[in-house]
Design a protein that fits this description.
It is built from 1 helix and 8 strands. Strands 1, 2, 3, 4, 5, 6, 7 and 8 form an 8-stranded antiparallel β-sheet that branches. The longest helix has 6 residues. The chain is globular.
Length: 143
């Protein structure tokens, strides 16, 4: 359970803003191609991880892997094509083609969708005590 954005950032290797441009089914997961438009920073980013991965930057394309538990009431909402999101990400640590893919940190905790000038949490009843909305400030600002 996350109690703050800093806690969420400590378990993340990247924070990205962008748009889903494509999706494909891969085994039991939906893989979304995500065009990064901004990569906000947080001083706590990756603090709880041993990863030395270089986080994505604006202009990069990343793949986000989400478990596709069709019919499960516990499944996080899947990303939707053409929608803009703020995502806290952690490496998949899978092998093969999935080695460069990411998961949303906390499954659903790091998943915010753009609504107007802010990003709103997509799952509010997860037990985490994270802010319901995040407003971006300036080009390099962030959570």
């Amino acid at each position: 359970m996350y109690e703050s954005i800093d806690d969420l950032a400590r378990d993340s290797t990247a924070i990205v803003v962008g748009t889903v441009t494509a999706q494909r089914q891969s085994d039991d997961a939906m893989v979304s191609t995500f065009q990064v438009s901004n990569a906000p920073t947080n001083p706590q980013l990756g603090g709880d991880l041993d990863s030395a991965d270089v986080p994505p930057v604006a202009g990069d394309i990343v793949e986000v892997r989400q478990m596709d538990s069709a019919g499960s009431s516990l499944a996080a909402p899947l990303l939707e094509p053409t929608r803009e999101y703020l995502l806290f990400l952690t490496p998949s640590m899978l092998g093969g083609d999935a080695v460069t893919q990411y998961y949303v940190t906390g499954g659903e905790a790091g998943l915010y969708i753009r609504e107007g000038d802010e990003f709103r949490r997509m799952v509010t009843d997860s037990g985490d005590t994270l802010p319901e909305t995040i407003t971006m400030t300036g080009d390099e600002g962030g959570p």
